Structure formats: structure tokens, C-alpha cells
Amino acid sequence: MDQWVQYGLNEAQKTSIPHAMMEIAAIAYLMGKGYDPRMAHQMVESWEFDEMF
């Protein structure tokens, strides 16, 4: 899970803190539902359009 915290901190520098928190929360939710972490990340990224959900 630590890698996703680091990812969120890095993402916040590129976008915004609310965006990064929403993205990491969505990834963590999907992981909690049983999705592989990388698949969860890909799914959440696919929901974005122009850096917005």
C-alpha cells in the first residue's frame, strides 16, 4: 500500500491534492473489492478525462 501513498503524493504535485486523494481512494476501494492493484489503477485512470473524473 505504501507505493500507492507515494503515487498519490507524486500525483498531487502534478494535479491537485483533491484529485490525487480521489484517485487513490478509488484505487483503494477497487483493491478492497478484490481487484489487482495494477488493474485498479488502470481502471481509475480510464475514468479520467483531461485530468478530471
Summary tags:
53 residues, 3 helices, mainly alpha
Your description of this structure?
The mean pLDDT is 92. The radius of gyration is 10 Å and the shape is globular. The protein has helices spanning 2-14, 17-32, 37-47. The protein is 75% helix and 0% strand. The chain starts with a helix and ends in a 6-residue tail after the last helix. The chain is mainly α and 53 residues long. The chain contains three helices and no strands.
Chain-wise SSE layout:
Elements: H1 2-14, H2 17-32, H3 37-47
Outline of this structure?
Helix content is 75%, strand content 0%. It has 3 helices and no strands.
Q: Return the structural class.
A: mainly alpha
Rounded average pLDDT: 92
Number of helices: 3
Find the count of extended strands (DSSP E, 2+ residues).
0
Question: Helicity, in percent?
Answer: over 70%
Low-pLDDT segments: none
Radius of gyration: 10 Å
